[in-house]
Amino acid sequence: MANKVLVLGEVRDGVLRNVSFEAVAAAKQIADGGEVVGVLLGDSVTQLANELITYGADRVVTVEHPHLKAYTSDGYSQAFLAVYEQEKPEGVVFGHTSLGKDLSPKLASKLKSGLISDVTEIEGSGEDAVFVRPIYSGKAFEKVKIKDGVIFVTIRPNNIKPLDKNASLTGDVASISVDVQNLRTIIKDVVRKATTGVDLSEAKVVVAGGRGVKSSEGFEPLKELANLLGGAVGASRGACDADYCDYSLQIGQTGKVVTPDLYIAAGISGAIQHLAGMSNSKVIVAINKDPEANIFKVADYGIVGDLFEVIPMLIEEFKALKVNS
What we know:
This protein has 325 residues and is an alpha/beta fold. The chain has 2 domains: 5-175, HUPs (Rossmann fold, 3-Layer(aba) Sandwich); 205-324, TPP-binding domain (Rossmann fold, 3-Layer(aba) Sandwich). It has helices at 18-31, 49-54, 73-87, 98-111, 220-228, 237-241, 272-275, 307-324, and strands spanning 4-9, 11-12, 15-16, 35-42, 59-64, 91-95, 116-119, 121-123, 130-135, 140-144, 151-155, 173-175, 205-209, 232-235, 262-266, 283-288, 301-304. The chain has a 7-stranded parallel sheet, with helices on both faces. A 5-stranded parallel sheet has the order 14-13-15-16-17. α7 (272-275) links the parallel β15 (262-266) and β16 (283-288). The N and C termini lie far apart (47 Å). Keywords: Electron transport, FAD, Flavoprotein, Transport. Residues 5-195 form the Electron transfer flavoprotein alpha/beta-subunit N-terminal domain. Its cofactor is FAD. One of its GO terms (molecular function) is electron transfer activity.
């Protein structure tokens, strides 16, 4: 049993990302009755601590400093290591996000610990916990068990179900002072190219377009469908290379990895690099004019047809369902 597990709560635009709550659930399973301690880093994050507690954290430690307003690996590693040295945990859980993927190897190296990244499932609990992660672009899965040292894992968003929120839960919130200094990188400004709305990596519904969308205007009906379903828009590398959309929407081996409840692929052929980023989605619906397209091999439902005819029909059907519900 891990007597104490630290969980990094990830904050974006003043809001805790959903993967933070999933990480708490994972930490609870690893701790198996031990203590789960949330960690919040930023320039103004203390007000978010109670929300982490309502999802299962026993208590929260915050570090606030002007240099933590924007993420840098130097600043965050100094702050997190200070908490780590104070708490001396047996386990650490991060989200497998762009932040987690950047920060966790740096910390694991400093702590001289192993790192199990991109965990999609945890079997068992405590000392018997076995961590499942995809390998070979999702073609196979390996099971890993920690025999010695700190249990350090990152979990893939949308794979481990968070605990139910319980507003009656309470816990201590403590703040420690860390002199964050000697930063090699200073963030002056952040310019977001991605569209506002649902975070692609955490979306429950993703509507993705490929080269078959034919133009940036061709993405408009996909955006309408995504908005109607409360989801996000994604794209294949081919669509991004063709300048139909920004690379921030790219899904695949060299883009984002998503595991939504519903993935709608429109005009995507299904190159192996794209499948690596979405093949673990719960339900996959493929729309393509080519009945031999590779995407149909991984799809749960396939529609052979012109996406510019099929997508508007889907929009009308979902609108009708919403009106009648």
